[in-house]
Structure prediction request, 96 residues.
Amino acid sequence: MRHRQVILRRNETARRSANSALTVRCVRYGECQKNHAAGVGGYAVDGCREFMASGQEGTSSELICAACGCHRNFHRQEVETEVLCPCSSPSCNGRS
Prediction:
């Protein structure tokens, strides 16, 4: 049985502003969009539904998909951004 590996890259950066919010960005790589028939003037994709890294994190093979053999850049990138605001109001902290 093969486990599916979802690649999430988390980039947490504190934005200095009036409310000093924290922005969390998660990146997920979806289906492969490489056109395998571009050389003959056609359009054909391989059907790879999700990027799975073929190597360990920190190696060059982590950028190659284990399912289709394409580079990670050929896979559709889905970015989820969440802004976390620290709440300083007493009702938010559970104080009355």
Observations:
- The CA atoms of residues 10 and 16 lie 19 Å apart.
- The two ends are 53 Å apart (CA to CA).
